[in-house]
Amino acid sequence: MRNMRKGIPVSPGVTVGKAYCIDEIFVNPHTHQLAENEVLPELRRFEQAREQTAADLRALDHKVSTQVGPAHAAIFRAHEAILRDPAFTAKVRSWIVDHRETAQSALHRILNEYTSLFARTRDEYLRERLTDVRDVIIRLSSHLSPALEPGSTVVPKPTVVVAHELLPSHAVALGDCEVAAIVTQTGGQTSHAAILARSRGIPAVSGVKDILRQVKNGDTIVVDGRTGHVIINPDAETESAYRKLQREFFQLKDVLAYNRDQPARMGDGEEVELLANINSPDDARAANAVGAAGVGLYRTEYLFLTHADVPDEEEQYRAYREVVQASPGHRVTIRTLDLGGDKTIPYLGHSREANPFLGWRSIRLSFEHPEFFMTQIRAVLRAGAAARRGQVRLMFPMITTLEEIRRVRSLVRKAGQQLERAGKRHTEVPIGLMLEVPAAAVCIDSLVREVDFVSIGSNDLVQYLMAADRDNPKVSHLCQPLAPAMLRVLAQVIEACRRADKPVTLCGEMAGQPRAYVLLLGMGLRSFSMSPAFIPTIKELTGHVSAAQAQQILRRAMQFRTTHDVMRFMGRTIAELAPNLKPLDME
Ligand code: PEP
Ligand code: MG
């Protein structure tokens, strides 16, 4: 089919909707020259857009301040400062007046100019600000093209957002838009857009190269989040076939809501723990709403990424306590900052590295900033006192060696002593390692002895094991959790934890994928943490399989020697085990 494109399926479900391209500015800037008498009206249009953008930002500031807390809204105040920057506005005006360009085109030029300028500067802080400038320009641009205005009645419905990538500010603005599906040009299974789509239960496809060149606002667009297919302006027959699938998807989601208050039990009655991955107190509430047994991964970096300056111990303590109080059963595994790679904050002095995922990221970065790290640990120990002992756990990402665990343990001890001396209420917390580096997997029998629990971060483990960037669509065929190599490693790690009698959870995205989930059950894993939106499906699937069946399925899957064969076999197996879940199974 000529109008069919294939990307990476990142969030299951099917949608037939209308395209809404949120950053067309980069692809199709208006280039026509203004006539003499058009210059003044264009300047006025720009001023109006600026006022509307400022109003948007103030509304977002207010919304986020009241719903999440003022510290989280600082980013929008920073964006307003960019918008009000006289040098920035003077540049736009000059392009309109001196060069007779449209405001849209001027913004496009300025963005290009900043992009090359920032690429050359050595000032890391400035370079990081490019994302903010880009965000402001996109927002401004949306007001210059009325069809792009978020929340306006001209946004086509049901809205399928088509974007180069999804920025954090889009995510907030889109909250009001009832997004029915998301398609992005970049990114993979674990990029920000994918995680966001999954946490909202919205079908999504990533890595569809150049889609913005082929689709325009208002086009009918089919998004199949199970297979990764995107069809633009389908013929009547195709559209009606996908509409049928879409109805099935909605019906299934409604049906599954029934299991919210029931425990997840296998066919033979054995209980399985289904926990939620969260980024914020709102997500913790979503975890409650779907009947999660607790929070298995709280990614604290989002607190830092949405904060204009550094959250101090008091702010962090309050944020963590809020999450603890909002989480099911007050059970939360808090992960310390996992920055670096694709997530950076300016004040830690990040330098551009040739291989950011192999460089100064995560726990390595935390060790370099011991005071900063200790502040976070103290805040967690204090938040732990808001729950019963042992319910709040502390987890360290990207542990590679035994020395790192020892160092972490000593820092936690020291943080406890500091709080003791300061007379601040706190508690002891279980300490865990995130298993995401192959070296740690190889030595897991040795590392596991020195921690209280293990959580497998399969998103990173698979990228490091397969040497394939998790966000790069070009190598997504390699970055596959069902690769035979990955299955072997997972089975070994789970077995080592069982032998050491240490609790083990898997909190990567594969936990929420039916095909992978059944194999993990077969390996003996009984604790999983996933995007809240997946919990109802996985709970339902649990009841369709017994331990013995899962083991047998695993034995057969391990005999296949290619990822493709494992995938095909598991696709068939899920269809047989739980035919009712087909609309939610991802390829
Ligand atoms: C992982 O790596 O599997 C994980 C859960 O952490 P993140 O996706 O935040 O790196
Ligand atoms: Mg990780």
Element layout with pairings:
Layout: E1 4-6, E2 8-11, E3 14-21, H1 39-67, H2 74-84, H3 86-99, H4 103-120, H5 124-144, E4 159-163, H6 168-174, E5 179-184, H7 192-200, E6 204-206, H8 211-214, E7 220-224, E8 229-232, H9 236-256, E9 264-265, E10 271-278, H10 281-289, E11 295-299, H11 301-305, H12 313-326, E12 332-335, H13 363-368, H14 370-384, E13 392-396, H15 402-422, E14 431-435, H16 438-442, H17 444-447, E15 453-456, H18 458-466, H19 484-499, E16 504-506, H20 514-522, E17 527-530, H21 535-542, H22 547-559, H23 563-577
Parallel strand pairs: 3-4, 4-5, 5-6, 10-11, 10-17, 11-12, 12-13, 13-14, 14-15, 15-16
Antiparallel strand pairs: 1-8, 2-6, 3-7, 7-8, 9-10
Helix pairs in contact: 1-2, 1-5, 2-5, 3-4, 4-5, 10-12, 12-14, 14-15, 20-22, 20-23
Q: What small molecules does this complex bind?
A: phosphoenolpyruvate, magnesium ion
Count of DSSP E strands?
17
Q: How far apart are the termini? A: 19 Å
How many helices in DSSP terms? 23
The helical percent reads 40-55%
Share of β-strand residues = 5-15%
Tell me the major beta sheet: 9 strands, mixed
Which blocks of ≥5 consecutive residues have pLDDT under 50?
A: 24-28, 147-153
Would you state the CATH class of the largest domain?
Alpha Beta
CATH fold description of the largest domain? TIM Barrel
Radius of gyration, whole Å: 24 Å
Number of domains: 3
Shape: globular
Supply the helix-strand structural class: alpha/beta
CATH-scheme architecture of the largest domain: Alpha-Beta Barrel
Mean pLDDT value: 87
Query: Superfamily at the CATH H level of the largest domain?
Result: Phosphoenolpyruvate-binding domains
